[in-house]
Design brief:
Strand content: under 5%
Radius of gyration: 12 Å
């Protein structure tokens, strides 16, 4: 469940903001925190990120920007997507 949502969100970010994964501090990443989540780190806060991406709450949940259930699983899923993209970018250079 979390992996699929994070994958969808990462794909959206790939299109909307290429290289986004290089601007995320995974040590402080916390999807439950509106300033330390993916959108918070990229756009200043979660709400500005939703506005710029033109997504509502329902889509934010589907893209893994809001956890359906609290806990570390969604953070792990996002960290995996970020690591996957960083690794692919490194291999491509």
């Amino acid at each position: 469940m979390f992996a699929g949502a994070a994958l969808k969100g990462a794909r959206l970010m790939d299109e909307a903001r290429p290289g986004w994964f290089n601007h995320i501090d995974t040590a402080m990443l916390d999807i439950n925190d509106r300033g330390r989540c993916v959108l918070g780190q990229l756009f200043g806060n979660f709400y500005d990120g939703c506005r710029q991406l033109k997504i509502d709450w329902v889509k934010a949940i589907a893209y893994g920007f809001i956890p359906v259930l609290p806990g570390p699983s969604i953070n792990r899923a996002w960290k995996k997507e970020i690591a996957r993209r960083r690794s692919a970018a490194f291999v491509a250079t």
